[in-house]
Amino acid sequence: MLVDVLVPLFLLCITIQLGYTLYFFVQIFTCKEPKSLIKYHKSQVQPVSIIICAKNEAHNLQRNLPSILAQRYTNEAGNAMYEVIVVNDASTDATDAVLAELERQNANLRVISIKADEEHILPGKKFALSKAVTSAKYGVLLLTDADCMPATSDWLKYMVEPINSGKEIVAGYGKYTEQKGILNRFIRWETMHTFLQYSSYTKVGRPYMATGRNLACTKASLLHAQQSPIWSELPSGDDDLLIRYAATSTNMEIVKWPEAFTLSEPKLNITDWIKQKQRHVSTGKYYKISIKLLLGLYALTHALSWMLFFILLFLADWQTVVIAMGGRCLCYWLLWTTNAKQLGEKRLTIFLPVADIAWAIYNFVFSPYIFFKNKQQWK
After folding, report:
1. How far apart are CA 98 and CA 105, in angstroms?
2. Mean pLDDT over residues 54-65, rounded?
3. What pTM does this model have?
4. pLDDT tens digits, 71-99
5. So what's the pLDDT on residue 31?
6. What is the pLDDT of residues 219-249, one digit of tens each?
7. How much is the pLDDT for 289?
8. Which residue in 331, 22, 326, 345 sits closest to 193, CA to CA?
9. Which of 72, 65, 64, 66 lies closest to 48 in space, CA to CA?
10. Quick one: residue 104, left, alpha or beta (phi over 0 = left, psi -120 to 50 = alpha)?
11. Distance (Å, rounded) from C-alpha 170 to C-alpha 225?
12. How far is CA 370 from the centre of its chain?
């Protein structure tokens, strides 16, 4: 009978889900409080180049750049130990005027302008990023976007602390602001869930991605990643490709301290959000085979667990089905609640059952873009 096949398959999926959780997701409990880790000594800090690539970002730069220029990261003499490089990639809005005024007011801001008729030897954002990296004075880089605002004036200090302690790559949390609506809750949940995934992989020595909204690295590691032939194939994806080619089991650290968050405004309608996600998932095809298999197994068993659960409620012993799924959900939702609390994601707990089921649909919608070539341009 069909039920004799589906029940063992359902229980196998639940077992894999629980095993995945207990091996990967429990790593959230290994993160220590910042006060027990920070080793900020003004006599030992390394100078940092903060890099922002911007195209038609006048409004965001005017709003967010002052807080980046006001970071508290100084030497013993009180001098700022960082520069901020903004690459203006042929903007047609008021970006030039905004940057000129801010550059006049801040000695540690440097603006690089790319003309509209200048030949781009790399696609999309990659060309602007290469200009910034080449121009950077310092060996430590902190990458963010024009639409990101540091959560605190200690953002820079906390993001580069692991590099001052010997790491080469540091991934921070790029948080989206809370707004009304189901879309906003799912965006924030999906962002939190993605961070939980790649941070737990990093903790067990299998790093595979980060987000360019909040990413620190040594200049040498980024230059190494830029030598990859794949680097020139995508207009974006610099963050994931950096991890793909420069991260090891020991040289990358995850920072989830609230002081190190960046804040961004999320997409307000589903059409814009879908376009954003299509671009983000397109680099998945370049992950290592073992990573793709693990992520695929997780997504597949997640979807099958929910699909078989609803089917077997009517075909099999519903008590067995409910107990199995209940154990799985209890484990997941407790971990997600803990992670949401650590990341300051409010009012998501009650949304967890909806997000859990919606993520299965999300994977079916976006998985094809992992296999298609990203033809989108950086705008």
Report:
1. 11
2. 96
3. 0.91
4. 999 988 888 999 999 999 999 999 999 99
5. 67
6. 999 999 999 888 887 777 889 999 999 999 9
7. 93
8. 345
9. 72
10. alpha
11. 15
12. 17
Helix crossing, 219-226 with 238-246: angle to 10°? 100
When the pLDDT of each residue in the chain is averaged and rounded to a whole number, the result is: 89
Choice between 154 and 367, residue whose per-residue pLDDT is larger: 154
Q: Residue 378 is encoded by which pair of tokens?
A: 């950086």
Q: Helices 2-23 & 318-342, crossing angle to 10 degrees?
A: 20
Token pair, residue 237, equals 């994806």
User: What pLDDT, on the 0 to 100 scale, is given for residue 268?
Assistant: 78
Domain 1-379 class, CATH top level: alpha beta
The first and second tokens of residue 70, run together, are: 């006001």
Q: Give the Cα separation of 234 and 313 in Å (integer).
A: 45
Greater model confidence, 286 or 114:
114
**Predicted pLDDT at 123:** 83
Residue-range domain boundaries for the chain: 1-379
Tokens of residue 215, six digits: 């990413």
